[in-house]
Design goal:
Number of helices: 17
Largest sheet: 5 strands, mixed, barrel
Helix content: 40-55%
Structural class: alpha+beta
Order of helices and strands: HHHEEHHHHEEEEEEEHEEHHHHHHHHH
Distance between the termini: 20 Å
Strand content: 5-15%
Radius of gyration: 23 Å
Shape: globular
Length: 557
């Protein structure tokens, strides 16, 4: 079997058999109800978003122009019309609005749309994510009067939606949000914010949420409030902040990311200290889930490009897809992609459970979500970069040129390891969960053990190493509680172990479901993953040709 179509000739949803089956297994009713919407979105991604992304990246990145002082804060920012049109169209498709209103859809739906969009343009997926984060805070966490005035413009699906931003990073603190030096001065019923936000993606947003320290508040994160900063004040006047300059970045070149200086900028209080920091973390958690789906989407695009090239390229008298080493690289790419997608779907399912309306989540539900987010954010982002690099290697020299999507993909994928917290930040978060009051190690063991115990007998053998890994994580958590000074020395290893345990269990669970339906393909993927990741062994060669595995054909058990 061969499929050498260009990405622009595909449908990012309809041509993804694994996504469709996995989504149906996660949320069958949602998958059936929204199939047509996702198919239309997948076609738009391939035919419209992809060519616009290439144009913005290579020909027309955003720029700043001279503008009158005191005017519209976004007046200096110019994005090319194709980027602007695709950005607006993403909201018309409902990537934010579908989660709000009278009959909101689960966030799983729009996270999945993020997976599709990121295969073409992470530079658009990012601002859509930020807008969704602002909408979530307004809808679920902000005072009712703010929700009533500011939420509706962000959730429109008519092509006129506002866009949002989250301004937390400062030059002095970086990932240490608690080191914020931005000041908030109360002025009647509003606040005036002054300071420099150093890394603001979607710099021309219509509204942003920003951390700042009110007068007299203590240092650190406990002293931070959260404030809503509109581009245009309620009286119609431009707000008093300025995009100082745009960042020159390795990738996501279509996305305007800038330094924003606030000078007594009008703001409304979303939450005072100490709740301000907590609410910003809630927004960042939402963005991290989108980051997970973006990373899985980047892996999908890398796999498509590598497999498509291997299907049509002949070298040394034979198709390169016939060579065992090429097959092994492709099978590993596919294996990691499937693990990442299952991690993403499990995280989204947990997110929807925790964020149900009119219901307070249980402590173990919150701990489970935090575990999933930390491990999945780290692993999927890391694998996105590795997948893009492997795809370039399959393509060879041409894959390194800007004529092919793989070069842009590698540059764009690298940001996913940095956005919303690096691997070190995720490792520290995991430590707090595993060894903290939430008893995260017990939650992890309980959730994963339940999956393993439900596996059919013929999948219990590869489940053995996963159980051993769970025991090791539990022992490490116990040691950390009695010997906390060892924490940071063990953090990255624990992060890898947790990601391995979760990924292996989810792949084995998928294998069990497919075996019950008479298909052994997922079992082969799961066994390969356990061999590679947990046993650090070379997997046995797959029986027969690799094409059925690579092209998602059913394989008899």
């Amino acid at each position: 079997m061969r499929d050498s179509r260009d990405f622009r000739e595909r449908n990012a949803f309809s041509d993804d058999a694994y996504l469709q089956s996995s989504l149906a297994g996660t949320a069958r009713d949602l998958a059936a109800r929204q199939r047509a919407r996702l198919a239309a979105f997948g076609q738009w991604v391939a035919q419209e978003a992809e060519p616009a992304a290439a144009y913005s990246d290579q020909e027309a990145p955003p720029c700043l122009i001279q503008a009158l002082e005191g005017g519209d804060p976004a007046a200096r920012l110019v994005v090319n019309p194709r980027y602007g049109a695709i950005h607006r169209e993403a909201y018309r498709h409902g990537m934010v609005g579908l989660n709000h209103g009278a009959e909101p859809e689960p966030f799983l739906l729009t996270f999945t749309m993020g997976y599709l969009l990121s295969q073409a343009d992470i530079s658009v997926h990012c601002p859509v994510t930020l807008t969704g984060a602002v909408a979530l805070v307004l809808d679920r966490l902000a005072p009712p009067e703010l929700r009533a005035r500011w939420l509706e413009p962000l959730t429109r699906m008519d092509g006129t939606a506002w866009t949002g931003g989250t301004w937390a990073t400062e030059k002095e603190g970086g990932s240490d949000i608690g080191a914020s030096t931005t000041r908030a001065r109360q002025t009647g019923g509003a606040f005036a914010l002054s300071g420099l936000k150093f890394f603001c993606s979607n710099a021309g947003s219509d509204v942003a949420i920003a951390t700042a320290r009110p007068e007299g508040a203590p240092p650190g994160s406990v002293g931070l409030g959260l404030y809503l900063v509109p581009r245009i004040k309620p009286d119609g006047a431009p707000n008093s902040y300025r995009i100082q300059r745009l960042k020159e970045k390795l990738g996501t070149r279509g996305l305007p990311t800038g330094e924003i200086e606030l000078t007594e900028a009008y703001a409304e209080e979303v939450a005072p200290p100490p709740r301000g920091f907590k609410l910003m973390i809630e927004a960042l958690e939402f963005s991290r889930v989108h980051n997970i789906f973006a990373a899985a989407g980047a892996q999908r695009r890398a796999f498509i490009e590598a497999l498509g090239h291997a299907s049509r390229r002949t070298a040394f008298g034979a198709p390169i897809l016939s060579y065992p080493m090429v097959q092994a690289t492709l099978l590993d790419l596919q294996m990691e992609l499937e693990a990442s997608l299952l991690l993403a779907l499990a995280t989204a399912r947990s997110f929807d459970q925790v964020w149900q309306r009119d219901r307070a989540p249980k402590d173990e539900e919150r701990a489970w979500l935090r575990l999933l987010v930390a491990a999945a954010k780290y692993r999927t982002a890391d694998q996105a970069v590795r997948a893009a690099s492997s795809a370039i290697e399959i393509l060879g020299g041409i894959g390194y040129t800007e004529e092919y999507a793989t070069a842009r993909l590698l540059r764009d994928a690298q940001v996913l390891t940095v956005w919303e917290g690096t691997a070190n930040i995720q490792a520290l978060e995991l430590l707090r969960i595993l060894a903290g009051p939430a008893q995260g190690a017990s939650v992890l063991s309980g959730q994963v053990s339940a999956i393993l115990d439900a596996l059919p007998d013929d999948m219990q053998d590869p489940a053995g190493p996963v159980r051993q890994l769970l025991d090791r994580i539990g022992s490490a958590a116990t040691e950390l509680r009695s010997n906390p000074q060892r924490a940071q020395h063990m953090a990255k290893r624990l992060l890898d172990d947790t990601a391995d345990a979760l990924s292996s269990a989810l792949l084995l669970e998928q294998a069990g479901h497919d075996l019950a339906a008479g298909d052994g393909r997922a079992a082969m993927v799961a066994r390969r993953y356990v061999a590679r990741r947990l046993l650090h062994a070379e997997p046995e060669p797959e029986p027969g040709p690799a094409e059925p595995m690579l092209f998602y054909q059913p394989i008899a058990p």
